[in-house]
Amino acid sequence: MTMSADQLRDANARHMLHPMIDPKAVAAAPPLIIDRAQGVHVYDLDGKRYLDTVASLWNVNVGHNRPELKAALIEQVDKLAYYSTFQNTSNPPAIELSARLMRLFAPEKMARVLFSSGGSDAIETAMKLARQYWQLEGRAQRTKFISLKWGYHGVHFGGASLNGNPLFRTAYEPLMPGCFQIEAPYTYRNTWDETDPARLARRCADELDRAIQYQGPDTVAAFVAEPVLGAGGVIVPHESYWPLVRAVCDKHGVLLISDEVVTGFGRIGAMCGARAWGVAPDLMAMAKGINSGYVPLGATLLNERVAAAFDKPGQNAALMHGYTYSGHALACAVALANLDIVEREDLPGQAARVGALLQAHLTAFDRYPQVGDIRGKGLMAALELVSDRASKAPLMVASPFARALVEAARSEGAIVRIQGNRLILSPPLVFTPADVDETVRILHAAFAHAAKATA
Questions:
Q1: Domain boundaries in the chain?
Q2: What is the pTM of this model?
């Protein structure tokens, strides 16, 4: 039975729990239900068109309804929809994708990959493999993880224990022991009130050094961070930060895990975020842009150093970890077609070029008193909303102004996202200059409407 639009709305509010929101809020204000999509636009049940300025959830990088990805899905499902990759079985798309990823990330000296079903899986995998690596190296006491305040690493217990925003932690505490957060390179808000990005980068790297020494270098497994902090508010570090972090990790022998779930496959203008900063991590957690969200897929990549520990003769290095859908044939087939587009259309370059235009246009939003900070890199940007510029008091998503802003943007024909007090833009990487112009026009109209509605 196909439900009518009214039946869908009613059933959604009655039965379906939504991530990251109180169920009572969904019941009180039924959600926007997206019925179809094309390119950089989506359509609701009533046929109204919206510009998708958030690529659904940072992930529909090649745009919606790409015929190449649909064709890959159909071709693969006609052959094999699913077969497990546990133990000693495999499938061609998973094998081909593993080889493709090693070619793409040869500059980072990546050597092996373990597939999963998404970003949270990929981070969990990286944490477990980091601990197993140290066991194989005869240093099993290296179990601790250090991450950043405001960092976001998913929703599993390991990743949630790394999260640096209490919003994602408190409902599920106590979390995993041995996880510690340090100051992020967040120029607009930091414990030292340091406004110079280069000096802040040095302070934060020094804090990492002190944290490792305090914990005991022989007890720390890895430092985990996003090249640009995403859900934490698009916090862009100074260009010196990641090289400084890599040097600190090398000094103490600590693994560097790059959370590339958002930044992987082009979003900030490079094939991976770490490469944008000139750094090669030891492990990378990837998802979202790997196949633009068409079929759930995650991947954890290990570099030559880490992979070598699993190849040592004479010791048991069995991976007692994996997911039912690790290396899912449909997901991997779509990923291969997706990566064809990413490379053929040079989407990292597109993100850099169109992103520079977006960043330039966003500077004009400084005219609005509710905008405290404007930042971004590539097609990843944020306007930090404040109720008072002098005190930097946050203007949160539940405020009348923020609600009016989102509603006005939708009325004008765009979906925008406010996370906490940050209006985040992360459009598909196929965004054009004309799409940027339309986004900026709609945002100006929305700010003007919200100011009038809440005056």
A1: 32-62+346-453, 69-344
A2: 0.97
